[in-house]
From TrEMBL:
Keywords: Carbohydrate metabolism, Cytoplasm, Isomerase, Magnesium, Metal-binding, Xylose metabolism
Native organism taxonomy: Bacteria, Pseudomonadati, Pseudomonadota, Alphaproteobacteria, Rhodobacterales
Catalytic activity: alpha-D-xylose = alpha-D-xylulofuranose
Keyword match Isomerase: yes
Cofactor note: Binds 2 magnesium ions per subunit.
Localization per Swiss-Prot or TrEMBL: Cytoplasm
Family statement: Belongs to the xylose isomerase family.
Organism: Celeribacter marinus
Protein name per UniProt: Xylose isomerase
PANTHER family membership: PTHR48408, XYLOSE ISOMERASE
Name of the coding gene: xylA
InterPro entries assigned to the protein according to its UniProt record, in alphabetical order: Xyl_isomerase-like_sf (IPR036237), Xylose_isom_bac (IPR013452), Xylose_isomerase (IPR001998)
GO MF annotations in UniProt: magnesium ion binding; xylose isomerase activity
Length: 433
């Protein structure tokens, strides 16, 4: 045991009337909602990078946190793992997620970095033997080091492509060894800054080929986890290739990969793309592409990805409405891709931020389930499109322009606008909050 979280008790459900800040007020893992335990609906995951690798920096300032595992080699990486699993136990978190760079020190070359990763993965495996916390997903950091400044799979240098492919393989191996249920590809530098030096066709082809290699390796290893792409626009590249759900789906269709890959969607990224979170989730649901989510929020007055913990129940409820409407998570879950503020220096802040986020998600899930079970919102939506269920309307869709025009002329069709009833539906949704 370390003393980093000394004096902090394990967080348990005590109910809405509790005044214990180290207690869940709304997240009751065993509460059954729509036939499933709340824990199994939400499938919470703790992000290793924000909780243990983040130093408190922002675009205008460096480290504000002082952690005993910073600036060290493999032994400090193991200390970081000890602290991480103590936090997972305090929160009774079902899952965690990591990039390779989060968990191991950078070596002098690829071989040393891989050895470091393998040593930490073995250490994780030992920790997991006595922990309820499992691996939701792993991924590779192909964006921080200067070698990736022009991308990974889309880099003009074949050696960077090769280094990236080798890194992905090592991270997939780590994920599979630890029993991870997903592997995420996040193209943090897959984009361009200027068209003056960019071959769009070649970069798209190379990105697709890398993804094909990932899919092929998954099948070769006999792994039944999900391959996920995480859309993100504008940050840090001016033009990201993985801009939003629609853009990524178009890319997957272009290269015939839409049946092999699903999406990991983040609220903060949706906002950067000019969308709401529920919009991105709804598009993914309609396309059958929803795999997992990163739960956070952005500061709406800032133009960058602030990764704050969720605190808006209506936003979260509409997100889980789409998740539940899609059938809920299978292998995916709710990963807190969220970080405490750079002035939140204490170990208690790290725990309580997750407690608050988990409670907000629980409230949102319960509101979403109530809306679905009540059925009024879906009934109103169905009623708006009810005329399309008639035989004449269905026949029209199988017809042609000439026949439709003849009918409009013969029947004197002259439609009047119908109300969309938006405010009434907003009032309905608010009644569940």
């Amino acid at each position: 045991m370390t003393d980093f979280f000394k004096g902090i008790p394990q967080v348990k459900f005590e109910g809405a009337d509790s005044d214990n800040e180290f207690a869940f007020k709304h997240y009751n893992p065993d509460e059954v909602i729509m036939g499933k335990r709340m824990e199994d609906h939400l499938r919470f995951s703790i992000a290793y990078w924000h909780s243990f690798a983040y130093e408190g920096g922002d675009p205008f300032g460096g480290r504000t946190f002082e952690r005993p595992w910073f600036d060290g080699g493999i032994e400090n990486a193991k200390l970081k793992a000890d602290v991480a699993f103590e936090m997972y136990d305090i929160l009774q978190a079902p899952f965690f997620a990591f990039h390779d760079l989060d968990v191991r020190p950078e070596g002098k070359d690829f071989a040393e970095s891989t050895r470091n990763l393998e040593e930490i993965v073995d250490y994780f495996a030992l920790k997991m033997e006595s922990s309820k916390t499992k691996l939701l997903w792993g991924t590779a950091n192909l964006f921080t080091h200067r070698r990736f400044m022009a991308g990974a799979a889309t880099n003009p240098d074949p050696d960077v492509f090769a280094y990236s492919a080798a890194t992905i393989k090592s991270c997939m191996d780590a994920t599979i060894k630890l029993g991870g249920q997903n592997y995420v590809l996040w193209g943090g530098r897959e984009g361009y800054e200027t068209l003056l030096n960019t071959d769009l066709t070649k970069e798209a082809d190379h990105a697709a080929r890398m993804l094909e290699m990932v899919v092929n390796y998954k099948h070769k290893m006999g792994w039944d986890g999900q391959i996920l792409i995480e859309p993100k626009p504008q940050e840090p590249s001016k033009h990201q290739y993985d801009y939003d759900v629609a853009t990524v789906y178009g890319f997957l269709k272009r290269y015939g990969l839409e049946n092999e890959v699903k999406l990991n969607l983040e609220q903060g990224h949706a906002i950067l793309a000019g969308h709401s979170f529920e919009h991105e989730l709804a598009v993914a649901r309609s396309l059958g592409m929803l795999g997992s989510i990163d739960m956070n929020r952005n500061d709406y007055q800032s133009g960058w990805d602030t990764d704050q913990f969720p605190n808006n129940v209506p936003e979260v409820a509409l997100a889980y409405y789409e998740v539940l409407s899609a059938g809920g998570f299978t292998k995916g879950g709710t990963n807190f891709d969220s970080r405490i503020r750079r002035q939140s220096l204490d170990a208690e802040d790290l725990i309580l931020s997750h407690v608050g986020g988990m409670d907000i998600c629980a409230r949102g899930l319960k509101a979403a389930a109530a809306m679905l079970e009540d059925g009024k919102l879906e009934a109103a939506r169905d009623a708006r499109y009810a005329d399309w269920d008639s035989a004449a309307s269905k026949a029209m869709l199988e017809s042609d322009l000439e026949s439709i025009q003849a009918r409009v002329l013969a029947d004197g069709v002259n439609p009047e606008p119908r109300s969309g009833r938006q405010e009434r539906l907003e009032n309905l949704v608010n009644s569940y909050m």
